[in-house]
From TrEMBL:
This is NADPH dehydrogenase NamA. Pfam families: Oxidored_FMN. InterPro entries: Aldolase_TIM, OxRdtase_FMN_N, YqjM-like. Keywords: Flavoprotein, FMN, NADP, Oxidoreductase. Its EC number is 1.6.99.1. The lineage of its organism: Bacteria, Bacillati, Bacillota, Bacilli, Bacillales. CDD domains: OYE_YqiM_FMN (cd02932).
């Protein structure tokens, strides 16, 4: 039996396999943040391709938190219907569903004033954000909570909180972007306070019967930024706060890319956090072949593999992988003769 195709159970949710369609922004929503036909077909195709978990892209919890004006949103009840269609079809295909709740902070490209822990732009020439006061912090926490309520009513199986890639929660976590001197700054405990309060607010709406994931950037690729030891410490905190899995990515707090990018270049971060923090992890980053994904799961380096660009190239990657790894056909009955 392939390890990649063993079920994975947390709380009341069982994924049929360990393949996750990683959240990937499509920048295809209207200004109203609603699902379009593109999203219906895009996500439906990956669900028909039998990913174990279909995760909807970074979805803004408030208008000023959009990465772009074409981001999906969940700040209004009016945005729920299209997401319900995605969830309903995915469930009909046997895939579980998740949504990544996000706030872009200083990386938002919108007309509204943008916000951040400190008034430091992302890069030279970018808009300078407003430093958040306690009122703005409370508004963001409540926005995450209300988005979680809507996600629950829609019927998602899992929520992921986006605290990576230089977006708002990552901006609070990183000493490169957080220069605050109040209780939301300073050491790691202070810089993680907003994330903790968001997790608590989300859990209050989401409940405890379904899993909660958090995506982090394990390292900032900067000597003065987040290091792997910091992320291990943060993962231990998140385990205490009730997080079920850490989705381990890296970078994004500055424009500086990693020095080296190679197949599986982030897997060791997920492996270290899983081992040292004792929490389930997801590995992401240039995982492209069935054999590579199988090795990660079989050797216990991570619990799930999050696939991104390879699923843009081949939405039926999971079906092809099953065949290559000797698993009986798992695809839709309508497509069986094609495989």
């Amino acid at each position: 039996m392939s390890f990649l195709f063993q079920p994975f159970t947390q709380k009341e949710v069982t994924l049929p396999n360990r393949v996750v369609c990683s959240p990937m922004c499509m920048y295809s929503a209207g200004d109203d943040g609603k699902v379009t036909d593109w999203h219906i077909v895009h996500y439906g195709t990956r669900a028909a391709g039998k990913v174990g978990l279909l995760m909807v892209e970074a979805t803004a919890v408030e208008p000023r938190g959009r990465i772009s004006t074409n981001d999906l949103g969940l700040w209004s009840d009016e945005q729920m219907d299209g997401l319900k269609q995605i969830v309903s079809f995915a469930h009909s295909q046997g895939s579980k569903t998740a949504i990544q709740l996000a706030h872009a902070g200083r990386k938002a490209i919108v007309d509204e004033p943008i916000i951040a822990p400190s008034a430091i732009p992302f890069s030279e020439g970018d808009k300078t954000p407003l430093e958040m006061g306690k009122e703005e912090i409370a508004q963001v926490i409540e926005a995450f909570a209300q988005a979680a309520r809507r996600a629950s009513e829609i019927g998602f199986d899992i929520i992921e909180i986006h605290a990576a890639h230089g977006y708002l929660l990552n901006q609070f976590l990183s000493p490169l972007s957080n220069k605050r001197t109040d209780e939301y700054g300073g050491d790691l405990n202070g810089r993680a306070r907003l994330l903790k309060e968001v997790i608590q607010a989300v859990k209050a709406e989401w409940g405890t019967s379904r899993p909660l994931y958090v995506r982090i950037s394990a390292v900032d690729y900067h000597p003065d930024g987040i290091q792997l030891a910091d992320s291990v410490a943060l993962a231990r905190m998140m385990k205490e706060w009730g997080v079920d899995l850490v989705d381990v990515s890296s970078g994004g707090i500055t424009p500086q890319p990693p020095d080296r990018i190679f197949p599986g270049y982030q897997v060791s971060y997920a492996e270290t956090i899983k081992r040292e923090a004792g929490i389930a992890t997801g590995a992401v980053g240039l995982i492209t072949t069935p054999e590579q994904a199988e090795e990660i799961i079989a050797n216990g380096r991570a619990d799930l593999v999050f696939l991104a660009r390879v699923l843009l190239r081949d939405p039926y990657w999971t079906i092809h992988a099953a065949k290559k790894l000797g698993v009986e056909y798992i695809g839709p009955k309508q497509y069986k003769y094609g495989f």
